[in-house]
Amino acid sequence: MVVSTPIRDRAGNIVRVVNASKDITELHELEEQIRNLKEIIEGYRMQFVQLQESQSDTDRALIYRSKKMEDIMALLGRVAVVDSTILITGESGVGKEILANHVHRLSPRADYPLIKINCAAIPESLLESELFGYEKGAFTGAQKNGKAGLFELADKGTLFLDEIGDMPLSVQAKLLRVLQEREITRIGGYNPIPVDVRIIAATNKDLQTMVAKGTFRSDLYYRLNVIPVYIPPLRERREDIVPLVNKFLSHFAQKIHRNNVSLSKKAMSLLEQYDWPGNVRELRNLIERLVVTVEDDIIDADDLPAHISKGVPRPADSPDRNEPIVVREVLPLKQAQQIMETQLLQLAARDTSTLGEIAQKLMVNQSTITRKFQKYGLQFGK
Fold it and tell me: Which residues are 7's β-sheet partners?
């Protein structure tokens, strides 16, 4: 590139021309690299969308027979076509993420990304940068060119905020602003960036109780709770157990090339009677284990885990059917207390990252939890 500057005398006549030459080969190369990068990014985006569309049948298929799930699916079918925020609640393992996938596939945003983030799995110090991104030099260790946040990546698509109840209060305030203003500001940046994103949030916690305790912002709760969807646990919709078992059997048998695997009537009956504290996730994992480990084509009751195969069936009109704790034999009170407390601690420690969260779940002081772990010889995080 040549820039010419005329030099004139006092009479205004051009007496010479100064030419400044600059090699712009490198500039053209950089422009070409930018174009290539944009094409690569678009290619990855399309691959991402295609990958979502090609998920396995067990992740995409919605298997149910109960009236409760029929009503839920009818509701999701109606709200999927609009942009209203959805808050999905229910116990761990009931299939909240699968329903979020279903809503996205039915929505007008289906051709754009469905971005997911587990708010409980990312440290508080990183969660904000993951959601909103950051500019170059925003903090020590930041990428030199900055980074786009998940809101930007989900533009025109859907952002699934799993375990929203574990989001720190400091991040809750910034999320609320994004939901209200429909724009984000990267960490270390000043210019707002408009985003067009549909929000689906999910949690296994009681957000109303958390609001009352001050651990979850009330204004954010009401902003998220536009379309509330509660997914009942598997023990409250036992009609779904048999079709789910058959679907998982077929899927995992095909996966390892076993064509004639089935369950005996007794085994199926025991699975129907079990309460499934881990819900559909626990059922899916059990069926996979049985298909892989049992050599016979017919999986019998003896092949089931002891806590299922030796369980005592309860009549339908039993008054303790929906009780969280069931005692089936007389034993010393101290022993019963130890068993109960040990199981409660182990159950509360699932998907929990700190002793403080366990204490919050069990509504006691953290010092009490520490003392109980030491008393019963339990190791947290192992």
Answer: 16
